Amino acid sequence: MLHLPAPHFRPDGYHGATYRDDAARAARRRIAEALAREHGLALVEDWAMPALNVDCYRMQLAPGQSSAPVLEALAHDARVKWAQPVQSYSAQAGSDPLYPVQPAAQPWQLTEVRKVATGRKVLVAVVDSGIETDHPDLAGQVAIKENFVDGQRYASETHGTAVAGVIAAHAGNGVGIEGVAPGARLMALRACWQSPDGATRCNSFTLGKALNYALLHGAQVINMSLSGPDDRLLQQLIDVARARGIRVVGAFDPTRTDGGFPASYPGVFAVAAEGAMPHAGNVLAAPGRDIPTTMTGARWGMVSGSSYAAAHVSGMMAVLSELKPRMPLTELRDSLVTGATSLDLCATVTRFTGKCTCGCTPANTSTSAANYVRTP
């Protein structure tokens, strides 16, 4: 995959074109085709990344061709911004009838929190496999639906549907579960696909396209319940998100020493399932075991894994974004309240509002959230 910046793609004697001009992009495409020929590669597809002001070109090696010398040669080509392999990623899976058994319902006091905020109109990008948008608990919750997996139609899939339910399932509709932020609006960005063995797979190119779309279409929270190796393209897109104050949430991967990317990347809210907390002070804990949520086929089921812990925190971020949408990310991180085993949404909302809103009693006359004692 090549990333070609606009300034390098001006044909001789051509002046005045901008990044988005069709003629300029056609010129960049011709150079990509030339590079492919020179290195014996097949140009498979390309995608504009306006968020980074680059075009991405995905190329395929010839049978038996080694990637290392090709990447080395491209790295020294003045026409190329950078070249990298396409990385692979995988999901971290593991009133309403099911609401009483939702692990976050009582500890996070969701009923009380909703009297203050529901994530109303906050746009949450779910970068995942496809969401069943007509599920009884999700119908009307998805504002945008896009597919970034080439060669496939948009599909309703297990992992994306389950993550979406944790974040924003309807509250009070008499069926199923209730999301942490039922007032939020979802962007269903299908960048992953369900493989025949049931696993959810993605790659850096599909994820990059989805992140670029989220940045261009106003996402305030980005949920990435997945893990894989470090990736330069995705890092740069996350940098843009952070610079804009977008809350990016990633699932901690316990099989990787660094927790996996994007959870390991600076500024990302890394989340592990409570009870499986890694020895890392910058990793948040949230409910992630035996979670009831939405499933394909208009059903509900139980799931476990840091994917769903991350979804809880994305819902939490939507609630907090409704209250203070412009709070800087570092200040937001410092304002999160942690209980005995996981984050405490109720206490965090109390800290944000300066009022005892979640079934707590004042320990003294101060209005600081730290001076409130939660009632059992």
TrEMBL record:
<dbReference type="Pfam" id="PF00082">
    <property type="entry name" value="Peptidase_S8"/>
</dbReference>
<keyword id="KW-0645">Protease</keyword>
<feature type="active site" description="Charge relay system">
    <location>
        <position position="159"/>
    </location>
</feature>
<dbReference type="InterPro" id="IPR023827">
    <property type="entry name" value="Peptidase_S8_Asp-AS"/>
</dbReference>
<feature type="active site" description="Charge relay system">
    <location>
        <position position="307"/>
    </location>
</feature>
<feature type="active site" description="Charge relay system">
    <location>
        <position position="128"/>
    </location>
</feature>
<dbReference type="InterPro" id="IPR022398">
    <property type="entry name" value="Peptidase_S8_His-AS"/>
</dbReference>
<keyword id="KW-0720">Serine protease</keyword>
<dbReference type="InterPro" id="IPR015500">
    <property type="entry name" value="Peptidase_S8_subtilisin-rel"/>
</dbReference>
<dbReference type="InterPro" id="IPR036852">
    <property type="entry name" value="Peptidase_S8/S53_dom_sf"/>
</dbReference>
<dbReference type="InterPro" id="IPR050131">
    <property type="entry name" value="Peptidase_S8_subtilisin-like"/>
</dbReference>
<comment type="similarity">
    <text>Belongs to the peptidase S8 family.</text>
</comment>
<dbReference type="GO" id="GO:0004252">
    <property type="term" value="F:serine-type endopeptidase activity"/>
</dbReference>
<protein>
    <submittedName>
        <fullName>S8 family serine peptidase</fullName>
    </submittedName>
</protein>
<keyword id="KW-0378">Hydrolase</keyword>
<dbReference type="InterPro" id="IPR000209">
    <property type="entry name" value="Peptidase_S8/S53_dom"/>
</dbReference>
<feature type="domain" description="Peptidase S8/S53">
    <location>
        <begin position="119"/>
        <end position="343"/>
    </location>
</feature>
<dbReference type="GO" id="GO:0006508">
    <property type="term" value="P:proteolysis"/>
</dbReference>
